Every structure is written in C-alpha cells, then in structure tokens.
C-alpha cells in the first residue's frame, strides 16, 4: 500500500539537519530537606489542633 508523497516534503525529510546539543536545566527543583521538615511539623501542628478534644478545656 504505497502512498504518494510530495517531492518537496520527501526532500526535506531526507536532507541533513544541523542539530546542536543543548544543556537542560531543572525548572522545577525538589524542595530541600529543611523545607520538607518544616512542612511536616506544620501539618502535625494542624492535625493536632483539628483533633483536639474540646471537652478537655
């Protein structure tokens, strides 16, 4: 099952391309260990407040 391809397109596909290597940069860096620890303590504090028994007051 052969299909006809435009000669201009075939010429561009077969032509040599001048590509260059690029250096990728991380745009979404992972948080530091300190930031993770701080967030964990904040979450523990919030859960402690939410689960506090009002009858103990």
Blueprint of the fold:
Elements: H1 7-14, H2 33-50
Q: Order of helices and strands, N to C?
A: HH
What is the distance, rounded to the nearest whole angstrom, between the alpha carbons of the first and last residues? 82 Å
Structural class assignment: mainly alpha
The 3D shape can be described as elongated
Would you tell me the overall average pLDDT? 87
Largest sheet: none
Report on the architecture of this protein.
By secondary structure, the chain is an all-alpha fold. GO terms for molecular function: actin monomer binding. Belongs to the thymosin beta family. Keywords: Cytoplasm, Cytoskeleton. InterPro entries: Beta-thymosin, Beta-thymosin_sf.
Summary of the model, kept short:
The protein contains 2 helices and no strands. It is mostly helical and 57 residues long.
Quick tags:
57 residues, mainly alpha, 0% strand, cytoskeleton, Beta-thymosin, cytoplasm, actin monomer binding, Beta-thymosin_sf
């Amino acid at each position: 099952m052969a299909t006809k391809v435009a000669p201009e397109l075939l010429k561009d596909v077969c032509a040599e391309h001048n590509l260059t290597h690029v250096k990728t940069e991380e745009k979404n860096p992972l948080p530091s260990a300190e930031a993770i620890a701080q967030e964990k303590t904040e979450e523990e504090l919030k859960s402690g407040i939410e689960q506090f028994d009002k009858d103990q007051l």
